[in-house]
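Lab channel / #folding
Pinned by the channel admin:
"Please post every new chain as: sequence first, then the structure tokens as a reply. Keep commentary short and put observations after the output so the thread stays searchable."

First post following the new format, from NK:
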Amino acid sequence: MAGTLEGITTKDTKAHEGKSKFPIFESMAEKRKLEFFLLRYVPDAVKGEFANFGLIAVGEGANGAELVDVRFTKDRSRILCLDPHADLDVLDALQREIHEEMGQTRDRAALMRRMEDSFSGVVQISQMMPALTERFAAAEVDEVARLFLESPKVRRVREPAGRQKILETMRSEFGKAGVLRLLTPVPVEPYTSAGDPFEFDFGYNTGKEIKLFHAVSMRASIDAAVLLAARYPKIAPVMEKMVGAAPLLTAVIEAEVDRSRAEVGFALQMMEESRIRVAETKEMAGIAEQARVELGA
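Reply from TO:
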């Protein structure tokens, strides 16, 4: 899913008609027509950001359109970067469904409708990319998939900073405990006012309590911690009244936070006074295990 490739659009492919930098896109006589479509994960239709995760090759046969080959990326990191709460099980089910369509011949429009109807709202099909080949060759489909689905290899990977690093640790430990699929983000809009974009990162309901978990980085600034401490006392009683269960919020912070800094001490005290439990990332294994027990996973 290289960034330099995801931006290719129908306009770009038209610019390459006639003589392409990729031989598989060149027009040559007596060649069989193939059409390539990219499957894109689009978590927010308004922003329009996406991650390519699949390639579909459709061939024109004598009896109609045929799904001749598919490729899917094994690297889901870009999807999770766009949407930390992406339901990967939905994508796995979609892949199985597409594989079942392999080799079936039908009207091209019907085939595309069939695929679109099967997809969830966060999965979209790209514009068609034509390619002409003398015969179907899996190696050529592999090359297109490599261009559009594989991430570029880099020598150094930037270490996730701040809140993102905490989120990755939380997600990893919940995953190891087998409960990540049972947790959901908890928007606060129902308990505040329309349009409030804030949501707690993870939550689950035990019946008597609503366990909430939120990543709060204090490495560079205490602003997020102070804001959470200020807002939570107003959210909690409304949530308890509406849901009928008492919310318990845990703010997960970095293990290496210098608690001797006056501003850090102030933020920690504010969260304590707001009845927010503070836990370091090194405690996540125990937190995840408790969630496993409570959820019966």
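NK: The radius of gyration is 24 Å.
TO: also worth noting, The CA atoms of residues 133 and 227 lie 59 Å apart.
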